[in-house]
């Protein structure tokens, strides 16, 4: 009996994500899947298999870790998905990416769900942990008072300038709530966004010797 595509894909990507730092490891993918299924439960006729495949694959060829899309292409070749399903998976992966605020328009409900699910994992307590895990792995400063957060940037500028972790909060993380695609995503993001703002307030107090 052949292994279902979902299980086959999950097994293939785990070996890749184990090589990434804790901000984009396999646990991140599992949390995004959990978020996606929670959001999808609010809708009818969601293509769950395609949604899960895209979630599993969305970071395997991430620009922060890979110079090209070889891993994604190899896995898609192995899976041998129907043409329309593969195109849908590719669109979802493209739509998830933040790109410095230059993300593409979501064309399907599954793409909206996947984008919200991934962004939820960049918010709240886990979002804070991931931000500092990534910054630490890349040797970035915790904060830099001389560094101004950019409100607009090209995709190349976003990937090309290694900013301090706190700067990243203002350039990306605190902007995510207002751009959630689904009602469920917006509701879940609200509390996590508030927690991040509370964290930054506390961090500022401790830095300034007020506590």
Automatic annotation (TrEMBL):
Any one Pfam family match given in the protein's UniProt record, by short name: HD
Signal sequence bounds = none
Q: Does the keyword Nucleotidyltransferase apply?
A: no
One example GO MF annotation: hydrolase activity
InterPro entries noted in UniProt = HD/PDEase_dom, HD_domain
Q: Which UniProt keywords apply?
A: Hydrolase
Enumerate the CDD domains for this protein. Answer: HDc (cd00077)
The residue ranges of the HD/PDEase domain are 21-132
State the protein's name.
Phosphohydrolase
| Species of origin | Caryophanon tenue
High-level lineage: Bacteria, Bacillati, Bacillota, Bacilli, Bacillales
């Amino acid at each position: 009996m052949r292994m279902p595509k979902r299980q086959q894909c999950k097994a293939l990507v785990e070996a890749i994500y184990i090589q990434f730092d804790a901000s984009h490891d396999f646990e991140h993918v599992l949390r995004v899947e959990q978020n996606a299924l929670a959001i999808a439960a609010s809708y009818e006729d969601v293509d769950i298999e395609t949604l899960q495949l895209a979630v599993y694959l969305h970071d395997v060829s991430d620009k922060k870790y890979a110079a090209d899309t070889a891993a994604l292409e190899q896995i898609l070749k192995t899976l041998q998905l129907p043409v329309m399903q593969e195109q849908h998976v590719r669109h979802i992966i493209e739509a998830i990416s933040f790109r410095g605020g230059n993300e593409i328009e979501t064309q399907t409900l599954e793409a909206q769900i996947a984008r919200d699910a991934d962004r939820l994992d960049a918010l709240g307590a886990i979002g804070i942990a991931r931000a500092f895990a990534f910054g630490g792995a890349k040797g970035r400063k915790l904060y830099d008072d001389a560094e101004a957060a950019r409100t607009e940037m090209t995709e190349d500028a976003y990937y090309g300038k290694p900013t301090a972790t706190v700067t990243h909060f203002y350039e990306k993380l605190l902007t995510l709530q207002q751009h959630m695609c689904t009602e469920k995503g917006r509701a879940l993001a609200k509390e996590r966004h508030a927690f991040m703002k509370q964290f930054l307030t506390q961090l500022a107090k401790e830095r300034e010797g007020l506590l």
